[in-house]
Every structure is written in structure tokens, then in C-alpha cells.
From TrEMBL:
Organism: Halobiforma nitratireducens JCM 10879
InterPro entries per the UniProt record, alphabetical: PaaB, PaaB_sf
Protein name as it appears in the record: Phenylacetic acid degradation B
Taxon lineage: Archaea, Methanobacteriati, Methanobacteriota, Stenosarchaea group, Halobacteria
Coiled-coil stretches noted in the UniProt entry, renumbered to this chain: none
UniProt signal peptide: none
Region (Disordered): 82-105
């Protein structure tokens, strides 16, 4: 039987998939996981799960994030003209600068 192994490096962090082990039962799978995946890197905990029990949801099953248009929240969405739009133009410039800085980081 194949068991998927998820490793947590430090307490409070997410568990990430690090591989799998082949074992006849849960106890052997936990021992194999500790030997194969727990000793190579700093490890706080391991999750050992039967491969058949790991469920997957992909983009064909459900639409993930970004389905609602919320572009109205950003000044860059609006076209500005006239004297009354000065604040929006300044905000748009600040937004563009912030996006550039995030890209540089």
C-alpha cells in the first residue's frame, strides 16, 4: 500500500508533501516515513496518509478565486480626465509605483 507523507519543518508552519512510502499498515508507514523523510531535514511533525484517502479538487471541478470582478477597488481601473480627477491620478501613480516595487522585490 502507498502512503503519502507530508512534513512540517517548524511548529506553526504548513505541512508540505515530501514523498511517499510503501508499507502494509499505518504503523509501518509511520516508521518508514520517519526514517526516509524525517531525518534528512529539520522536522517537527509528519502526516502519513493512505494515498487512496487523498482527495483532489482541480480547476475542472471548481472555479478557484478570481471569479468576481473587483477591479473597482483599484484606481488603475478608472480613466481619469478633468480637474476633479487629480486625486485619482495621484492614487493611480502610487499604485503603479507599489506594483513596480513588488516586482523588484
Amino acid at each position: 500500500m502507498i502512503w503519502e507523507v507530508f512534513r512540517q519543518e517548524e511548529s506553526g508552519e504548513y505541512h508540505t508533501h515530501c514523498g511517499n512510502v510503501h508499507a502494509p499498515d499505518r504503523e509501518m508507514a509511520k516508521q518508514f516515513a520517519a526514517i526516509q523523510h524525517g531525518r534528512r531535514k529539520p522536522t517537527n511533525s509528519l502526516w502519513v496518509v493512505p494515498k487512496a484517502e487523498v482527495g483532489e479538487i482541480d480547476a475542472d471541478d471548481v472555479a478557484f478565486g478570481g471569479t468576481t470582478d473587483k477591479s473597482y477597488r483599484w484606481a488603475t481601473t478608472y480613466r481619469t480626465t478633468g480637474e476633479d480627477a487629480r486625486e485619482v491620478v495621484e492614487s493611480e501613480d502610487e499604485q503603479a509605483t507599489a506594483e513596480q516595487q513588488r516586482g523588484d522585490a
